[in-house]
Amino acid sequence: MNVAIIHPCHKKSSNRIQPERSFCYGEERISFERFDRKTGVPRILIKVHPNCRVSVFAPPDATDEAVLAAVKKRGHWINAQLNKFHQQSMNDAPRRYVSGETHYYLGKQYLLKVLEAPASKQSVKLLRGKLEVSVRQKNSEKVCALLNDWYKTRAKDVFVERLDVLLEQTLWVDQRPPLRLQTMQTQWGSCSVNGRITLNPHLVKAPRICIDYVILHELCHLAEHNHSELFYRLLKQVMPDWESVKTRLDGIAGLLLSGV
């Protein structure tokens, strides 16, 4: 859910709830619903929901004109959020593991090409911008399993490589922490009290900068297990723009965690 807050000019209005209003942004007509906020709250709150519904919560005494002006003022942001959620809904369609689908690796999309080769070894190869999966007989479950194993193998190699590089920045870490992979539905990584770092193999689908952010996040937990001021000071020290990287990763999480 995405939210924008705007301070309006207030005037008396007898219309308390006005659903299904709309405004034009370029060639697009965007509909929104208006709802009352609590009396005494002077701001207009705009929410864009993942189902592409736009809700506007305004003070009861805000005029229609003030509400419409506030929504138009954030037209670019609203349209961008709607486009993002629309694209996500298209990509969230169930995977069929057939030729022509796209799958992510290190932040890039690759076309899936399934080859039926009864006499060949079943395998996954990244060739010429495509993920080529060779199977003895075309079967979506087998293609899924092969891709899953391929991602885990690649993830282990990539994560070890990035961990070794990033340890040079984290001077508070005196020895290389143990690393393991575990598929998780809602987490990219974790750090145990005894210093073991766990990373989600799905993370290998993300850009390297996002992988670095998650690893650095967990390395900071070796010094501070809570999200304290010290923790964020350490994180900012090793990755000054961590907030923008986190926002980028959050924005593509649905795509990366779906499918394999």
Description:
This protein is α/β, with parallel strands linked by helices and 260 residues long. It has 2 domains: 2-91, no CATH class; 102-257, Zincin-like. The protein is built from 6 helices and 12 strands. It has helices at residues 64-73, 75-91, 140-166, 208-221, 229-238, 242-257, and strands at 2-6, 21-25, 28-36, 44-48, 54-58, 102-105, 108-116, 123-127, 130-135, 179-181, 189-191, 197-199. Strands 1-4-5-3-2 form a 5-stranded mixed β-sheet, with helices on one face. Strands 6-7-9-8 form a 4-stranded mixed β-sheet, covered by helices on one side. A 3-stranded mixed β-sheet has the order 10-12-11, with helices on one face. A hairpin with a 2-residue loop joins strand 2 and strand 3. Helix 3 (140-166) packs across helix 4. The protein is flat, with a radius of gyration of 24 Å. The protein starts with a strand and ends with a helix.
